[in-house]
Amino acid sequence: MTWDTRPWWRPVPRGDRAPDHERSGDVTNEAGPEQSGALLTLPRNVFLDGPNEVARPDFDLFRDTLNGHFYPATITALEARPGTKGPRIAAAHLPLTTIGYVRPGTRASVDPGDLAAYHVNVALDGRVVSRCGDQTAVASPRVATVFSPDRHTSLPDWEADAAQLSIKLARTRVEEELGAMLGRPVVTPISFRLAMPVDSGAGARWLSLLNALLAAIGGSAAEGPERRHVELLERALISGLLLSQAHSYADELHAGRTQPAPHRALDRVVEQIEHEPDRPYTVADLAAIAGTSARSLQYAFQERFGLSPMQLVRQVRLDRVHDDLAEGTGTVSEIAAYWGFSNPSRFAQAYRERFKEYPAATLESGRRSRRP
């Protein structure tokens, strides 16, 4: 795909027993403190302070706008009485995902039928009853919901003031990512467990990946992050979901020790990383280069090098940052962003751990060496 000079995101001006919070046919999870709202940092310029596509309380407008961003759905107002906050929709269309801040402003139901994509709803406040196939859960700030394609999906009761981040994930990319991680094609749709706790553990770690992507969206207008980095964050969000949430391929994905990749396959991976460290790699990409599964590659890297493939990618990128800073040109933020480091504090910490000084010190030394 080609790029134009506009920002990379496109805001549109208009087998196991289920855990206690999720049981097929039952609704049992209780709303708790607003954990997801506290853990997520929304880019205000995109979702909160930017244009509201449904600024006036017109339910038909809300219906048409939501359908335009996501899926054709039957959307019905369940009460005539509006909520206290009013409706709001603000969306960003990225290369692999669509992310929208959605609040109906009126108690509503949404029935898109069988989805053509994978989808995650992260509730920021309030409650949303959610169904996918024979599973039912209540989305709340403690519990996100993950929907699978080819299963009847509905939100039969969405509270008027309940805001959600609705995240549409391209089906082909999710299944390609899983296939690369498994080392074989995915021939049947992935069936995710609907409820995903996000107040601790793997779900909270997945939210941190979402936070990184949201930070890139919010900083785009001012800092111009490159598309390759954005796509890497999207793919990390997808692979993180596959590793964090229970689904029909999880047992195979998390199987015990596998046959490690041979040394020559590892050499191919190392050579590729060193040749093009700026590419937006995921572990699935590197496994495809090695011709093995992601788990086999991870195990082989730990056995031979004592680190993971993605840790090697980070080390090589840090080395390139160091080389560029030592030239004494540019700025720390520009060079770090070019090599894929979007979080300044984490980058500075990682850089100091590797080189025993902060990046600004390396840059200043480089500038002094250039002075006549």
Please give a structural write-up:
With 372 residues, this protein is an alpha+beta fold. It has two domains: 235 residues, Jelly Rolls; 115 residues, Homeodomain-like (Arc Repressor Mutant, subunit A), CATH 1.10.10. The protein is 43% helix and 19% strand. It is built from 14 helices and 13 strands. The strands form two sheets. Strands 1-4-5-12-7-10-13 form a seven-stranded antiparallel sheet, sandwiched between helices. The chain has a six-stranded antiparallel sheet with strand order 2-9-8-11-6-3, with no helix packed on it. A hairpin with a 3-residue loop joins strand 4 and strand 5. Helix 4 packs across helix 9 and helix 5 packs antiparallel against helix 6.
Outline the secondary-structure elements.
Blueprint: E1 10-11, E2 23-24, H1 35-39, H2 44-48, H3 59-69, E3 74-82, E4 88-93, E5 97-103, E6 106-114, E7 118-123, E8 128-132, E9 135-139, E10 143-147, E11 152-158, E12 164-169, H4 171-182, E13 195-197, H5 201-223, H6 227-244, H7 250-253, H8 263-275, H9 283-290, H10 294-305, H11 309-326, H12 332-338, H13 344-355, H14 359-370
Helix pairs in contact: 4-6, 4-9, 5-6, 8-9, 8-11, 9-10, 11-14
